[in-house]
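Note to self: keep these together.
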Amino acid sequence: HEEPVLSLNRNFSAPVRLSAHQSFAGKLRLAASDSDLFNRWEAAQKLGSAVIMGAMDEISGKTPNTRHCEQLGEALAGILADEALEPAYVARMLALPSEGDIAGTIASNVDPQLIHDAREKVRARLGRQLHAQLLKTWQAGAPGDDETSSQSAGKRDLRHAALMLLSASDATAGAAMAKELFENASGMTSEISALEVLSRLDVPEREEVLEAFYNRHSSDHLLVDKWFSLHAQVPFPETLGRIRSLMQHEAFSLNRPNTVRALIGAFAMANPVCFHAPDGSGYELVGSVVLELDKINPQVAARMASAFRSWKMLEPERSSLARATLERINQTAGLSRDTFEITGRSLAENAGE
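Structure:
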């Protein structure tokens, strides 16, 4: 007989943070069969975090339990095969914790590059392990974007989740599928889905499709902002130069708050591996924009400055560089009250004052 496993806080209507010492095997049981769907999802997220942190140990030369990733894959295989589950729910079960989630779990001496590399390693392994099921899901297709029922939307979400993992394990094949999705898209959901996949891949198709998207929608400022945001989240070293170049683009202006949020905000808050570049170049870029923007729109500048709020949890070199940028902003003469308060509070709170 298997030992019982506790499913805690069942049917709660609000999130609760609870510290519970559950074994990896126990979490596997919950992820595979808990009848409380939130608890089932949360168990899968905790498993994903453990596997990613194991991959971090592996990259760092330590000896993790590599069987854990395979066991997570087996649990996800069962979820993919369970036709009683809603497609949208299965899509969420396939999504690993974000890099920000992992950083928050570690909470000290955080190396964003190591987290990124480990998460990508796990995504690639799961993509290979689940390849047959993921490919079947992709090839099954999904309702067109004009079908707006929750079931249709869920099927599109699941197909997107399958493509994300397939592309992580085979960038060439994934890029071809994403490009096909874009070219045959029946609406914006499919176009964005294709671009979200391609933005994570270092392939020629990424630039081709980004250019095609802009050419199609250059007259729609909301979609142009989305285009800026997708550029900003490309997780490769050349993105810093990309951001500088896009700041000179005819569609970009510091006088347009939404466009600033789309490009600079997405870079600072949704691209941790590039914002936290080890040489501090990401901090330098955002810090300079904050100071320039502060003269135009202090509220938006203060919001951008909040990207530095977690500097203390970083590993020492990045932490020092981020703090130096915060101090440079905070000590600038003529700084607005909004930005002064945000940067001052970030420095004080993180220093334990």
